[in-house]
Write a structure and sequence with these properties.
mainly alpha, elongated
Length: 552
Amino acid sequence: MNIVASVLQLIGSLAFLLFGMKTMSDGIQKSAGSKLQNALGFMTKNSGIGFITGLLLTFIIQSSGATTAMEVTFVNAGLMTLQQSVGVTLGANVGTTITAWIVVLLGFGSTVKISAFAVPIFGLGYILTLIKKWNKQSLGEAIMGFGLLFIGLDWLSDTIDPEKGTLNFLTNFTQWGAWSILIGVVVGIIITALIHSSSAESAIVITMAYNNLINWEFAAALIIGSNIGSTIDAVLASLHASAPAKRTALVHVLFNVATVILACIFFNPLLEFIDLIIPGTPKENITYHIAALHTILKTITSLVCLPFTKQIAAAVTKLVKDDDTARGTEYKFEFSETGGKENASSYIIRAEKEIKDMTLLVTEMFERVQSGFKDRTDNFITGNIEELRAQEDYADQMKEQLTKYLIHCSRLPLSQHQEDCLTIMQQIVDDLEEMTDDVFNVALLLQKSINKKMTFSQDDMDRLGPYLDLARQIMNFIRENINKHLDADQLLIAREIEQQIDVFRKNLKRTARKRLEAGADVKTELLYIDLVKQIEKFGDRAYSIASSLSQM
């Protein structure tokens, strides 16, 4: 029973530690909202600035996994180049080491431990989440996470006390010489991959070393191995992504693997260097030695690689082939879990890219149908109808999977603005899919007029030209501004185009009715009116999207 109780205590302590780190990171990200996203997009003009950006962003949100996942998403969406992402990756690797210093300085390095104030800190955070009028709920959540982190750390330290013997078997792994180092590296990889956090792994290692369960060499091996385990988030974020995004993840993996290999080759000199610059022997001051190793190892390797971002980008470009640009018949867009490192901004950017692609699909379909008004022959039917049918079916698939994806996104830690954006994005997806229906219906009406050999006067077709141009104009306006906030002046532009479409529609229908009254062919004129109505619906939906964008 004592063993079972000890194991459960250990699991609970680890859960508190990990949950605290996740809560703190989520709270910071929700509090900052899109500011972090904008910073990552803006501050990457060169490798040096990208390095600093990655370092600071990871320090702020306490998660290199979230930073790299966001970075992969930016590259996938075309908002950042591969070369720019290399600098951010290097900076994020250094930024993730800050957590170890926080744990050392506040958890083990001061006479008054922060764990003594952890419960009051948690209470302060909870109070902030309750007072709605202060609008500090996200900040309160971050503070609660900070308190939970040190409660978990204190419990973990108490649980693995050597006098209790809970994890004393770990000392056996420190007696096998070079094999101990190899085992430590492998275990470090596995633990970090499982908990998706090199920061949490370093906190666990520091706690075990502080309690004399592991020696300096084995602790160093565990820290070194965490470099490879921490790449799991970047790999998961790149699944189902574009080739540039996969290359970004590959940079992260290759860099960290190279870091581990070099650290293993120069293991003893590296530890001797740490011993030289950190006061006291490892036995006397092991927590500082571990934190310094974590920081210095990543800093040295990052700074060595920083001048070669262009060459690194070129190398991974050769390793990962370009995407097949041809659009298939089946659309796949899955919500990829990243093991607790879900970053709302990254997921929203992924959805925005797909919405942009959907907008391009609508544009392609409209241009294809517009050509049918100029060449209303059997050539239009044979060359376009089946392709338009396939595109319309593809749009239906996009709507279905994007809707599921956005529902998944709504379950992530979100700010109020992000929640509103998801609702707006769903409305835009609905409108875009209905626009593909409108375009395909126009194509079917054209097909019917050709098959029935209906004759329209040249004047009638000439009148449709400006009408179609207006519909195309508002479509192009939407395509250029999709996923952007429209101000009042921009919305007015869309409104004016939509009003011109309405005026044209009334005039064209009035003219068609006059021809009916004059004895024109009923079926031909009714089909002509249906064409006019369908195009007007297309314009209405485009303006609906513009209205939605003005609310983002």
